[in-house]
Amino acid sequence: MVKDFQVIKGFIVFEGLDGAGTTTQTALLTDKFKAEGIICISECEPTTNYIGKVIRRVLGGDVAAAPGTLAKLFAADRNEHLYNPEEGIVARCSRGETVISDRYLFSSLAYQSLRFGFDNVLKLNMDYPVPEHLFFLDVPEEICQNRLEERDQREIFEKKSIQKDIVENYRRAIELYSGSGMKIHILDGTLPPEKLGKIVWSKIT
Ligand code: TYD
Fold it and tell me: Which of 46, 65, 186, 191 could lock 196 by a disulfide, CB 3.0 to 4.6 Å apart?
């Protein structure tokens, strides 16, 4: 990739299909850091702030939005997540804290590209810095679907037919960012959570 990326030290991201286990691994890693006495904040995208709340309404099907609107909402939510002067990732990491995010811009490239186009989504996210570590939890679509069937509510991106395209977009995004300076770890997300958690920890330390 031609562009120079800023790498945020202390920022860690988990990515994967719905049902891949990003939320579980985010929680396990946060606990591990805390047990080691390291200040660590666990967050997610969409965030829990005002823009994230609107996004959840769109994902839940309460309100309709054009594909470009949703892509821009995610980008705006991310901007606030990164740059909020007090609570933002950049501010926290520059104070020496560790921030773990369940999803980041790679989710936009994987999901919003379906309806808005990869290059358009890339343009919206191109200027954002990258994490020190990106963990992609690799789980076959069928297993993710089985895991999701055990949950009550489905959001708009959880339909079976589009999972293959989402994975393909993830691979494209990871390839594109391979020279960005962040450490990319593609791990077998079918492993038992605790075992996977140990592998994650070994990659960080
Ligand atoms: P998810 O991590 O599944 O949250 P929850 O466990 O609360 O449902 O994320 C919600 C959805 O948001 C998921 O289907 C992926 C989607 N998403 C995007 O489409 N684009 C993005 O940029 C992000 C961060 C998430």
Answer: 191
Report if pTM > 0.70: yes
* Residue with token string 């705006």: 76
Predicted confidence band at 131 (pLDDT cuts at 50, 70, 90)? very high
DSSP string over the chain: --S---EEEEEEEEE-STTSSHHHHHHHHHHHHHHTT--EEEEESS-SSHHHHHHHHHHTTSS---HHHHHHHHHHHHHHHHH-TTTSHHHHHHTT-EEEEE--HHHIIIIIHHHH-HHHHHHHHTTS-EEEEEEEEE--HHHHHHHHHTSS---TT--GGGHHHHHHHHHHHHHHTTTSS-EEEEEETTS-HHHHHHHHHHHH-
Q: How far does residue 46's CA lie from ligand 1's centre (Å)?
A: 6
pLDDT of residue 89: 98
Sorted by where each starts, the structural domains of the chain and their CATH numbers stand as 7-204 (3.40.50.300)
What is the 18 CA–ligand 1 centroid distance (Å)? 7
- Express each pLDDT in 1-15 by its tens digit: 557 899 999 999 999
Among 49, 77, 103, 145, the mutation site with the greatest number of ligand 1 atoms within 8 A of its Cβ is 103
